[in-house]
Specification:
The complex is a heterodimer.
Chain A lengths: L6 H69 L6 H14 L3 E8 L13 E6 L2 E6 L11 H9 L3 E2 L3 E2 L7 E13 L2 E13 L1 H8 L2 E2 L3 E6 L5 E3 L11 H7 L3 H11 L4 E5 L7 E7 L6 E7 H4 L1 H47 L15 H47 L13 E8 L7 E8 L2 E9 L3 H21 L3 H13 L8 E9 L4 E7 L5 E3 L5 E3 L19 E4 L5 E5 L1 H4 L11 H10 L5 H16 L8 E8 L4
Chain B lengths: L1 H24 E5 L9 H8 L2 H4 L3 E4 L8 H7 L4 E5 H9 L5 E5 L6 E6 L14 E5 L5 H9 L5 E5 L4 H4 L5 E5 L3 H6 L8 E5 L10 E5 L1 H27 L1 H14 L6 H14 L14 H13 L9 H4 L10
Parallel strand pairs in B: 1-2, 1-3, 6-7, 6-8
Antiparallel strand pairs in B: 3-10, 4-10, 5-8, 5-9
Helix pairs in contact in B: 2-9, 2-10, 5-12, 10-11
The chains are: A alpha+beta, B alpha/beta.
Chain lengths: ~650, ~325
């Protein structure tokens, strides 16, 4: 539909390239920016969830911690009513639903009458709260973590989570507070007050945490053991450290070490063979237990990628629409151009009235239409003008052709002109630069006297040719009346000078050879001096003329000279079209070159001499336009006979 | 009435014969602790049918909080038990005439550890320090070592966890190389954060796990016991070459018994327990109790005042494997 070199194709491809570039830039920026924002918000979300979970857990732990602390304080008040202790622990359990059990455990043999063990304990058994005294051969509680560690450390202690002995899968942890009594004036360790926390409470809180599709939270004990986890087989079996070994994932060990040191972090991590994930972890406030929130990387950006897919799909759709609509618009806008091209071709073929495509808009296309229309009108007018001018020119040319014929007919051009006169042989040519020229030559016989003349009218073209015709006509008519060269010249000059409104003039050489004596009378009105060629090889120019050209001053006195011709003498007369012929380098043919050629051809017949010279001039001029008329005439005097 | 009586008597007789026949081949074994890779050889022999192949019907039971392995043996709920050598010698001096029929462990895995940060680097640094020690009957060996060096220490009895040590409540902790030493590692303590003191490096390389029966059992069922030891040895060999299977087996068993378990720890334990069975340069065969080890154990216990006297090596060690001489 769209050709590869068409305007539409180029506009569309440029528009598309720019659009795609802008889109890529905008989308890249948007993606990067969104990614950063999403990551920040996911980080915040994960941290918030973890903190929120920690806060919820602390809401359970912290009030619980107060209870054994209060019991411990109570135990320092003496004397202790031993039997009421059972009621105290029972009341504690009954009034706190998160408390699974409570104990007040005394040092071995603290009450001698009670034996080695005395530890009132209350615990839940279904809906009931039962009481008993802990301790026995198989329950040496003095060496259990919940008793021994706070005793040794002299401070409250949260145990590592543990499964209730024989209680099935009841996951618990115990908070223990040591208490003291003044014995023999010394504050002495007396026992431990505890509460047991049913960890199901925490499990419920932690398992409520959801982030993205499959993100979750889990809790770790101080030793890195999984206390809650979506994968139940992890619970109380696997720790971050054991999984670090089993999965060959040292990062898990790093996480455990961080938590042991109370460091919280948000970080990216990848377990071998699993998806890249993010984790935020922190300790609880009460103890070294920790909450971690985990979610897969790809879920964090899933929404972004979904949006990206939609945007790219929409963009591709938009690109197709843009391409189609641009193609439509450009085609509609540019279609007159094709019509204009057709119109232009038709107009070029001469159909100036070709109908132009119709343009309804007022845009550049309208301007083009108007310009075309104007061009059409101008062309039509021009062509009419041209036709008229051409017709006129043709007419002039035809007239000039006729004028030339007439002009040429005026000068003699049949050679040899006087076959019955052996004394004289001659040859002459006249090559006009234009249709008609201002050069002339003539010769004729009157009473055994041979008249010859050569002239060059100032200017060129029709005026010069008319002036030349006048000169030639006057020469003949005056020569009928006057016999001397001087008389003829002065007569000519007088006639030409009078009524010479256009101030034209003519250089003119006139020679009269008396065939009976061989004496040649001649007069020169400003013309190039002819050349005399002697049979012995002597070639020389006549002296330069001392008279002005004809037609300038009416009463000029033209001197007459004479020369005795001998047998074999040749007279070579010419106009300045010969010696002043110019080539392309604007060099003149020159007198020397002319004389040299004459010298070389001095023995030749007049016709051959002239043809040689003409050839030399033409080859010198080469293709350069002939600027002046070329006229040459050679007269051979054969003696008196 | 008469024919009826005869039939009844015959059935009764048949039942008694059947029961007797069954009793001959049935053996109950109790290791001295809850299931873990320390006893992998027994579980593998059971699972792979090595006992069955030997014509034995072996049942494995475990001690509980209230009933330990010795009590199983005393009460007859177990025919064979595993025990530490020193525990067995102590029990014998207390009047329980048990005999060793096979000694699988050949080395001591007992060691003591201190945090490097505590600055305790030599035994001499133990002076005046608190040392955690289990009340499991083998505390006498570490105590003998400390006594030999004439150090004044505070012994803190520990029931089962390393938490007191982790919480900084102890300067030194007695641990088993195959167990608690790795528990510390799997609780986030780097191995290079600990200074270690292997008792075997101080002349107390006293072997540990061995198999014990009452003299009557030995007398009556020596053949079955021989088959048991042989099949168990086969189980250990299989475990050594099929560790992944063995660890899975042990972990599954632990799960069934609700014992906290993970593969990382059991893998470590299996490796070390197998290492402990290596006889090394001792001039004995596998499952044999080296007389010098026996004498060292007796002298430690005597010195500690735990036992007054002891039976002879010959009385105590009664190999049931056909190729082992006393």
């Amino acid at each position: 539909m769209i050709k590869k070199n068409s305007l539409s194709f180029r506009i569309i491809s440029h528009v598309l390239a720019i659009t795609v570039f802008l889109f890529v830039v905008i989308i890249s920026f948007n993606y990067y920016y969104s990614r950063t924002t999403i990551k920040e918000s996911a980080t915040e979300n994960a941290i918030f969830l973890a903190n929120n979970t920690v806060a919820k857990i602390e809401q359970i732990l912290q009030p619980m911690e107060k209870i054994p602390a209060m019991v411990a304080a109570l135990m320092e008040v003496q004397p202790i009513d031993r039997d009421s202790l059972f009621r105290i622990v029972k009341a504690i359990v009954e009034n706190n639903e998160t408390i699974y059990g409570a104990a007040i455990a005394f040092e071995p043999g603290f009450f001698p009458e009670k034996g080695r063990y005395f530890a009132p304990y209350a615990y839940r058994d279904g809906d009931q709260v039962e009481t008993m005294s802990l301790g026995g051969q198989h329950y040496e509680y003095f060496f259990m973590d919940w008793y021994q560690i706070p005793k040794m450390l002299n401070r409250p202690y949260w145990t590592e989570p543990y499964f209730d002995e024989g209680g099935g899968n009841q996951l618990m942890a115990t908070f223990s507070v040591p208490f003291y009594q003044i014995i023999n004036g010394e504050r002495t360790f007396a026992g431990i007050a505890t509460v047991d926390l049913d960890l199901d409470w925490l499990t419920d809180i932690v398992s409520e945490v959801k982030i993205f599709e499959s993100g979750y939270a889990f809790m770790l004990s101080g030793n890195g053991m999984a206390v809650t986890h979506p994968d139940r087989t992890m619970i109380m079996n696997k720790s971050v450290y054991s999984n670090a070994e089993e999965w060959n994932a040292p990062i898990l060990r790093e996480i455990g070490r961080d938590l042991r040191e109370g460091i919280s972090r948000f970080r990216e991590y990848q377990l071998p063979g699993r998806a890249n994930s993010w984790i935020y972890y922190r300790n609880l406030d009460s103890n070294l237990w920790a909450i971690a929130v985990v979610f897969p990387d790809k879920e964090m950006f899933a929404e972004l990628h979904r949006m990206g897919t939609i945007i790219i799909s929409l963009f591709i759709l938009g690109l197709i629409l843009l391409t189609m609509s641009t193609a439509g618009i450009v085609n509609r806008l540019a279609s007159p151009l094709a019509h204009f091209a057709d119109s232009a071709r038709t107009i070029a073929n001469g159909h100036f009235d070709q109908k132009l495509p119709e343009i309804k808009t007022k845009d550049e296309m309208k301007e083009l239409h108007d310009a075309f229309s104007h061009m059409q009108d101008e062309l039509a007018r021009y062509v009419v003008n041209l036709k008229e001018t051409t017709a006129a020119k043709e007419k002039i040319e035809s007239e000039l052709r006729i004028a030339r014929e007439i002009q040429m007919a005026m000068i003699p051009h049949s050679f040899p002109p006087f076959p019955d006169l052996p004394q004289i042989d001659l040859y002459a040519i006249l090559r006009s630069a234009k249709e008609v020229g201002g050069d002339l030559y003539d010769f004729f016989m009157i009473d055994k006297r041979f008249y010859f003349a050569i002239g060059d009218v100032s200017g060129k073209g029709v005026p010069a040719s008319l002036f030349m015709a006048v000169t030639r006509t006057l020469l003949r008519s005056i020569a009928d009346k006057e016999s001397s060269a001087k008389g003829i010249m002065e007569g000519l000059n007088k006639s030409l000078a009078s009524n010479n409104e256009s101030n034209m003039f003519v250089t003119f050489f006139l020679g009269i050879i008396d065939l009976r004596t061989g004496i040649m009378q001649y007069a020169n009105a400003g013309h190039n001096p002819p050349v005399i060629i002697k049979p012995d090889g002597q070639v020389r120019m006549f002296d330069k003329a001392k008279a002005i050209p004809l037609g300038l001053f009416e009463d000029f006195d033209f001197p007459e000279l004479s020369l005795q011709l001998n047998e074999g003498d040749k007279i070579f007369a010419y106009t300045d079209g010969v010696n002043e012929a110019e080539n392309q380098q604007e060099e003149l043919f020159g007198d020397d070159r002319m004389l040299h050629i004459i010298q070389q051809n001095r023995d030749k017949h007049p016709k051959e001499l002239i043809l040689h010279l003409e050839e030399a001039v033409l080859s010198f001029v080469n293709d350069h336009t002939q600027s002046d008329d070329i006229t040459m005439m050679t007269i051979l005097y054969n003696g008196k006979t | 009435m008469r024919p009826y009586k005869t039939v009844m008597l015959s059935i009764l007789l048949l039942l008694m014969v059947a029961m007797t026949y069954a009793q001959v081949n049935k053996l109950v074994f109790s290791p001295h602790w809850l299931p873990q890779a320390q006893f992998a050889g027994y579980y593998v022999a059971q699972d792979q049918g090595f006992y069955e192949e030997a014509g034995l019907d072996v049942e494995i039971i475990h001690p509980s909080v209230t009933v330990n392995a010795l009590e199983h043996l005393k009460s007859g709920t177990a025919d064979i038990i595993s025990l530490f050598l020193v525990t067995a010698l102590t029990a014998r001096s207390e009047g329980l005439e048990l005999v060793n029929i096979a000694q699988f462990s050949q080395h001591s895995a007992i060691m003591m550890v201190s945090m490097k940060s505590s600055g305790i680097e030599t035994l001499q640094d133990f002076d005046g320090k608190k040392i955690g020690i289990w009340m499991s009957g083998f505390e006498e060996v570490p105590k003998a070592l400390i006594n030999e060096y004439q150090l004044e220490v505070e012994w803190v009895p520990i029931l089962s966890s390393v938490n007191l040590f982790l919480m900084g409540g102890l300067d030194i902790m007695t641990v088993m190389y195959y167990n608690e030493y790795n528990v510390l590692y799997l609780s986030g303590i780097e191995r290079d954060e600990l200074n270690t003191f292997f008792l075997s490096d101080y002349g107390y390389d006293i072997p540990e796990d061995g198999l014990y029966v009452l003299p009557e059992t030995l007398k009556e069922r020596e053949d079955d016991l021989g088959k048991f030891v042989q099949a168990t040895q086969k189980g250990w060999e299989y475990a050594a070459t099929n560790k992944e299977y063995t660890i899975d087996l042990v972990v599954n068993l632990m799960r069934q018994q609700h014992v906290s378990s993970n593969k990382a720890h059991q893998a470590w334990m299996l490796d070390i327990v197998l290492e402990m069975q290596n006889i090394g340069e001792k001039p004995i065969k596998e499952t044999q109790l080296f007389i010098a080890d026996f004498e060292k154990a007796v002298s430690v216990l005597k010195e500690r005042g735990i036992i007054k006297g002891a039976c002879s090596y010959e009385m105590f060690f009664n190999p049931v494997m056909p190729d082992i001489q006393k």
